[in-house]
Amino acid sequence: MKRLGYISATAENVAMLRQLLGPRWEVVHCPPHDITVGPDFAAVIFELASCGQDIVELPEAIMAACRNAAVPFFICAAQNETVSFTTSLLDTIAGIIHRPFRRPQLDELLNTPEANVDDLTVFSLYHHFVNAVGKVLQVTGEITVERDTIYSLGKFDAFGDLSGSVRLSGALAGRAILSLYRDFAVELTGRIIGCDRAHVTGDDFTEAANEIANQVGGVIRTVLWNENRQFDISLPELIFNAESPPVATAPEQWFAAILRAENHLLKLQLALQVCRPEIVPAG
Amino acid sequence: MMKVLVVDDSRVMRRTIARVAEEMGLEVVEAANGAEALTKLQDNAHEIALTILDWSMPVMDGFQVLEKIRSTRTFNHIPVLMATSDGVDTDVKRAIAAGAKDYLVNPFSKEQIKARIERHIPKSHVTCADMRAKAPAGAAGAAEHAQQ
Q1: How far is A225 from chain B (nearest CA, A)?
Q2: A170: alpha, beta or left? (left if phi > 0; alpha if psi -120 to 50)
Q3: Cα A108 from chain centre
Q4: What is the ipTM of this complex?
Q5: Phi/psi class of residue B132: alpha, beta or left (left: φ > 0; alpha: ψ in -120 to 50)?
Q6: C-alpha–C-alpha distance, residues A85 and A118, integer Å
Q7: How far apart are the first and last CA of chain A?
């Protein structure tokens, strides 16, 4: 189990971080003015809002302590007008989780039988997925997409009128479901297809969903390729929620992100599992 | 008018790229698969200035089409820009090694498409064509004259 020091003024944020990271990480709540950084910490996150008036000296003191103990130090920004605290925290965690996966360390991990990379990567994959969906919608639909809220939850929650669901198999297995309201689905499809929204048909929904799935799959494939993992992504299944709302078939742990695009909300829900790749002996 | 051949099995992608090229004053020829692309190349060999070729297509993938283009004397001079849905290094290296001039990794923006087209089609062609497309009839003749 990896130990993560979290300097936060509030126990609620610590609880949120524990929930996000799951049982493989031990999140140690460190009071801002009384932290002892030991080499057993994988990293220390400093929540900027926790330092009160000592906005310069306290982070510098903790940073120095981390440097002395050779422990990576991350600052998690406070909420501002454009970035929520949760988003900032997630970016910070993704940065930490990605650290071990630079090529040489990854090779070492993959060749160590007891190493469990699965639990370490799945969180960052959620993060990549959310980013990829945002980027693809932004590029294909020419629409600004922002992350609004990100959280993990035990069960799947239906949202909106229309959902596109894909299944993943192979080294990355599970399900991804993007849900939105019909009005925005029509608007977005029109932009992706390049036609007026008045002319959008059911087939266009399918075509736009295929394009999104193809491009998001490409982005994730690129991320995973460097980690020697290959997977297949199914064609999207379009679900009209009023007719047959999407349901989770297994008691999976779902992760959800609410995205905001021009005052419309989209919900991306993911239940992913990283399977250990086959290690092919060299030569 | 200079032509760009856009080869992609996705209508969405063909139209996305075509819109950018058309805005630049280029004429677009579309093909939904490799066989159709080769026919269009054969028919328009002297007018096509650039081929934008999707990597993953059913039946004949982009790599096979690229090899065919490179081995056909009639149109092996036409630069090929590969469009890939993932940025896996080995695929990109393979495409470049096979004779692709450049590559685009999805999701790419309109600006990226435009920049790549400008890189591979001499700017004078794009600009003059653009001028002809936008200018009234008399001015188009002047643009042509200026080009000569």
Answers
A1: 7
A2: left
A3: 25
A4: 0.70
A5: alpha
A6: 26
A7: 34
Exposure pattern of A74-103 as b/e (b: 16+ CB <10 Å)? bbbeeeeeeeebbbbbbbbbbbbbeebbee
Give the strand pairing for A73-76 and A41-47. parallel
> Across the interface, do A214 and B85 touch by the CB < 8 Å criterion?
yes
Helices A202-225 and B11-23 pack at an angle, to 10 degrees, of 90
Q: Which chain A residue has its CA at the smallest distance from B91's CA?
A: A222
| Tens digits of residue pLDDT in A32-47 | 777 777 778 878 888 7
Single-letter residue type at A99: R
| Interface touch A215/B110, C-beta < 8 Å | no
- Best of A139, A144, A196 to mutate (most B CBs within 10 Å, chain B): A139
Establish if A215 touches chain B: CB-CB under 8 angstroms.
yes
pLDDT digits (tens, 9 = 90+) for A21-78: 777 778 888 877 777 777 788 788 887 766 665 556 677 777 778 878 777 777 776 6
Q: Can you tell me which residue has the tokens 């699965």?
A: A118
